[in-house]
């Protein structure tokens, strides 16, 4: 009886561990939480402790439904630390209802229609001779460039440079790349 019980427990643990490994292999950890490819951009971002400012801004701009849509979208997602680099009071001012249009313009400047993983971004950079232009959902251009092997930077309309710290966080409706600077349109 003990051998049968022991075998059953061992088998159960083995299948549980294998199942957990399969689930975890498809997810990426961002902000202390697993980002699941079966969830959409908003569902995953809500769980990231590093993106609470971005989530609050998306809600204030009324973009939740859009980013939960079918997409696909590539989102360059600034961390809380990226927002903290802005001048004091900027975020608090942007989330006010009277500044919704400005906030929406800034946030949609972080979104590109289509799903561009790192390999696709690298191909665009190579084809462009070291840099490439992406058209954002806001309608304004954003530039990508290589900064060494496996390192892509973004340049915004004001000349600010953002580094991608986490690539290819796949979502049901696109992909997220985590960045260290808030991108600013014209």
General description of the model:
This protein has 186 residues and is of the alpha+beta class. It has a single domain, classed as FAS1 domain (Roll), CATH 2.30.180. The chain is 39% helix and 25% strand. The protein contains eight helices and nine strands. The chain has a seven-stranded mixed sheet. A hairpin with a 2-residue loop joins strand 8 and strand 9. Helix 3 packs across helix 7.
Residue share in helix: 25-40%
Task: Give the DSSP E fraction (strand runs of 2 or more residues).
Answer: 25-35%
In the CATH hierarchy, the architecture is Roll
pLDDT averaged residue by residue: 87
Report the uncertain regions: 10-24
Q: H/E order of the elements? A: HEEHHHEHHHEHEEEEE
What is the helix tally? 8
What is the count of distinct domains?
1
How far is the first residue's CA from the last residue's CA?
74 Å
User: Would you tell me the structural class of the helices and strands?
Assistant: alpha+beta
- Morphology: globular
Q: What's the CATH superfamily, by name?
A: FAS1 domain
Widest sheet: strand order?
A: 4-3-9-8-7-6-5
CATH topology heading: FAS1 domain
* Top-tier CATH class: Mainly Beta
Organism: Buttiauxella noackiae ATCC 51607
Pfam family, one: Fasciclin
Keywords: Signal
InterPro entries: Adhesion/Biosynth-related, FAS1_dom_sf, FAS1_domain
Summarize the structure.
The protein is an alpha+beta fold. It is built from 8 helices and 9 strands. The chain has one domain: FAS1 domain.
List keywords for this structure.
186 residues, alpha+beta, FAS1 domain, 7-stranded mixed sheet, globular
